[in-house]
Amino acid sequence: MRQTILWNISGDKPEPLQVYPPLLTVRSIEDINISQVQDQLYERVKEIISDLNDLVLIGKLHPHRLDPVAFANTLHHAVDVLTPGMKKSLSQKYARDSEFKKGFQLWAREQGIVDYDREEFFTNAARQIIYRMLGRVLFYFALRRFSQDLPELSLGESTLRR
Fold first, then answer.
1. Domains of the chain by residue range
2. When you count CB atoms within 10 A of the terminal residue's CB, does the N or C end of the chain come out lower?
């Protein structure tokens, strides 16, 4: 499998749509018996089938594939950046609003965050809220790619209750 190309043959002249990098571990047909090579070929076939599926469903290839580790690291970094502001806001409202405090403790207990008197309480709660909100945003935009008639995204106080 030295060269794999998806071709667009719909026009007058065939044009490459996707050129896949060569699998350097495949040097001869006998290499197919090596389990590492079989794994690489399996992953390549999955990639090609995914691209063909994209062509059938949406009529084009996705030009960029996200690395799941990089994506998770980016999400984690966003949570780290947003946590101090959320923590400060939560702790201030918690200290001055007894109704909020009661509801917040109930919500936190449902989330498994029960260390109300410890410093980590607001950090853990803030991180949980931020992850939930970012999850909603990501899900909304992923869904919106396939359904343009979705209502506008809303991230009000109800996000906390769900």
1. 4-58, 68-161
2. C
